[in-house]
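Still learning folds. Look over my entry:

…
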Amino acid sequence: MSETSGTTFGGRRAIPPNNSNAAENDPPTVELQGPVPRGVNLQDYLNVTNVHLFKEKWDTNKLDHHTDKYDSNKLIVRRGQSFYIQIDFNRPYDPRRDIFRVEYVIGRYPQENKGTYIPVPVVSELQSGKWGAKVVMRERTSVRLSIQSSPECIVGKFRMYVAVWTPYGVIRTSRNPETDTYILFNPWCEEDAVYLDDAKEREEYVLNDIGVIFYGDISDIKSRSWSYGQFEDGILDACLYVMDRAKMDLSGRGNPIKVSRVGSAMVNARDDEGVLVGSWDNVYAYGVPPSAWTGSVDILLEYHSSENPVRYGQCWVFAGVFNTFLRCLGIPARVVTNYFSAHDNNANLQTDIFLEEDGNVNSKLTKDSIWNYHCWNEAWMTRPDLPVGFGGWQVVDSTPQENSDGMYRCGPASVQALKHGHICFQFDAPFVFAEVNSDVVYITAKKDGTHVVETVDATHIGQLIVTKQVGGDGIKDITDTYKFQEGQEEERLALETALMYGAKKPLNTEDVTKLKSDVDMDFEVENAVLGKDFKLTITFRNQSPTRYTISAYLSGNIIFYTGVSHVEFKNETFKVTLEPLSVKKEEVLIRAGEYMGQLLEQASLHFFVTARVNETKVVLAKQKSTVLTIPKVIIKPPCVLCDSLTRPGHQEAASAVCPHSPSGGGGTGHRQVDFSAAFKKS
């Protein structure tokens, strides 16, 4: 097959970028080596009359390759694994004098050395890891081939041709969309970079098209069902379009590291006209609120058809769509939720909270934030670019948070490397490490411009990291895959290792962490029901024989789930006197009228308490969030048989089990309807 002639620049031959799967440049149907003698008809030689791909859902190709769920009438196979095709000729095939081969082409400027033009020779035996075609059956004018693809093959939609050699040149079949073949990553193939050896995990992380995404508060974990829909009609083409839109070179599309990194950039539209526009300000004009989405299919199809970003998404929507993208292409993937997830804005591997001298948070200096929860993805792959042992689950995050190499993207970052603090390995490991394992450092900004580290909370960030159970909808705790148990020597060693590799030197907190105060402070928030008052109880403990006085400050804020404050609804200062070896509790009443008018979608109440021990100048600080409990609304219609709710003297029966209800032995009667779910988006 002849290559497209390039343009010469400064003595170099330049081939135009080959970065679109959809773009085509059909090869010639006849390639002559010279003039054809008079009287010779090339059609008298071996000619192809038809090609059969065995591409129905029940055919062995799709069943063996686990692609029978795709709603597509095209052949879809996984790389590194053989599949069958049948070629019909105009006469019986004679291997002693007939030469032909199958060709796969992708993109507009195919080149053999780039893997975008693949000539598949007919061989006597297939070799693992190499392209080849073996004749497995000859019957009359038909030949059935077993075609072996390379486990490193480009992933995408290939055009297929059959080329026949004659003494005067090559005769090639013309372009036929019916023979287009999709080739995907193959988690079932040991030689593929995404090979996953556990059958149940392959079923979950590749073939399951329905999932559960966890959100909410660590003390009140909620879940939402999500339809990934990776096998739905048009989704595979939409995922390939995402890479086309990124102008990703086709030669790199066989590398799951590159594919997942491009995907993390393209699922958000922050800087590249990607799939989803993010919005966290509770304003969703001209779009769909993030909480209204229940799956990825509508989002990806709309993006593909309109060629414009879809509005709007937040972290779980980005993660859900990205999961569809990865699973559709054959990369094992899952959605992960991190509770109390840090956003390290200045790359110093710690979460810095700046305080005024009176204990209030200095919002001008405080750029880091702590999300109630944050969702990202893990993708399974080998990492030949890293030292041995750092393959497996990789963090990839498509929520636009920080710029990485000029684009809003994150990962892939090795989970195993993160656990041990080896953040020197690409990609974006320092940022992800801070999300799960950074210390919260409270710093007082003095009026003279100096900064004083007051206290360090080493346990607040990354308290729980979860994903969906394999084969079920329950919670699987995977915190120990990201970090050692808090307080263990290994956990501190991992942090010290990360700080050693960190690009920016953090504030010195060593002396602060070694200093143990005689006074301890903590607080608890009473179960808060929407529309009702509740109490916040602050407990001070004096463990010394010395009497202390304390100046304390409480701030209550409505915050987005990203940890960004919307409005402060409560602030209060108070004095506390602590007698030697004593415990004292202070109660603060939070009235419903103080917060009700400020509530937002997905918002929670965040409380921040700082206290200064006047005698020692030691500052204590704690912060906690609480999610309002939605009251249940139960409607009990009257029973048409006993009319127990309306007859005088039957008030008690209204709360009792109706004798005609299913639970009371009958088939009809009172039915309780729980409307609390309707208020969850309020």
In short: Confidence is low (pLDDT under 50) at residues 2-9, 649-656, 663-673, 675-682. Residues 60 and 170 are 32 Å apart (CA to CA).
